[in-house]
Specification:
- A hairpin with a 3-residue loop joins strand 1 and strand 2.
- The chain has 3 helices and 5 strands.
- The longest helix has 8 residues.
- With 93 residues, it is α+β, with helices and mostly antiparallel strands.
- The protein is globular, with a radius of gyration of 12 Å.
Amino acid sequence: MAVIYLTNGQEHKLGELSLKDCEAKLRLRRSHYVSGLNSFPDLTKPGDQLAGYRDNPNVVVLVTEVEAQATGWKAGFYHARCTPEEARNVCGA
C-alpha cells in the first residue's frame, strides 16, 4: 500500500491506497518522483523540488520498499497532481 499525506510544512496522513488506485484516483505518475525514503520532502527549503508549491497544501504519496518491489516503481516520495479535496474524498478523510 502507498501512504497518502497532505502537507503544508507539516505532514498529515490521510490514508493508504494501492499504487494502482493512486494512479487512477490521484493521477500519480512515475515522473512525479520527488525524493527517496531518507526524509519527508521539506516544502519550506528553497531549492526543494516542491518549493514552488509551499504556499498551498499538497498531496504527497509515499511508495514503500515493499510496494516499489511489487510494482517496479522507485521507493520514495511522489507529488500527486490532485487537489487536497480530491485526496480527502478518495481516502475518506
